[in-house]
Design brief:
Radius of gyration: 30 Å
Strand order of the largest sheet: 1-2-3
Helix content: 55-70%
Largest sheet: 3 strands, antiparallel
Strand content: 5-15%
CATH architecture of the domain at 73-147: Orthogonal Bundle
Order of helices and strands: HHHEEHHEH
Length: 148
């Protein structure tokens, strides 16, 4: 008869064997698991000073890159000037409007930072029940200020 410890050791051996077979079998069945990118990285502990510094620096670089993409005051003024210059008549009350053709012209002149806002999708999103197929310059400008 086997002792209690021998039974436990045998049980652990069998468990390890079957677990490794199961684990290995799963990987060979579906190799796409190897292509899934890692998406979670734990935060560095307080004693991991180098990792903390690396995290701070990478965050600062990311924020600098994002801030360079934002429109500054001068670029916003230039955009407003171009939109106002290319407005399409007639006005609706006090509101200046712009059609798609002029919208694209402004997009070409506005600069590289503004390119992302001059798409058909954004024009269509802001298009309401205008009989001439125009959008409000003020609504578009407010959209750029919110999103940019």
């Amino acid at each position: 008869k086997k002792s209690e410890q021998e039974l436990k050791d045998e049980e652990m051996e069998l468990f390890t064997k079957y677990y490794m077979e199961w684990k290995g079998g799963k990987k060979s069945d579906n190799i796409s698991y190897a292509n899934i990118p890692r998406f979670y990285y734990r935060l560095p502990a307080e004693d991991e000073i180098l990792l903390q510094k690396l995290r701070e620096e990478s965050r600062a670089v990311f924020l600098q890159r994002k801030s360079r993409e934002l429109l500054d005051n001068e670029e916003l003024q230039n955009l407003w000037f171009l939109l106002d210059k290319h407005q399409t008549s007639p006005m609706i009350g006090e509101e200046a409007m712009i059609n798609y053709e002029n919208f694209l012209k402004v997009g070409e002149k506005a600069g590289s930072k503004c390119k992302q806002f001059f798409t058909a999708k954004i024009f269509a999103k802001l298009l309401h029940n205008d009989p001439y197929g125009r959008i409000s310059i003020m609504q578009f400008f407010n959209y750029v200020m919110r999103k940019g």
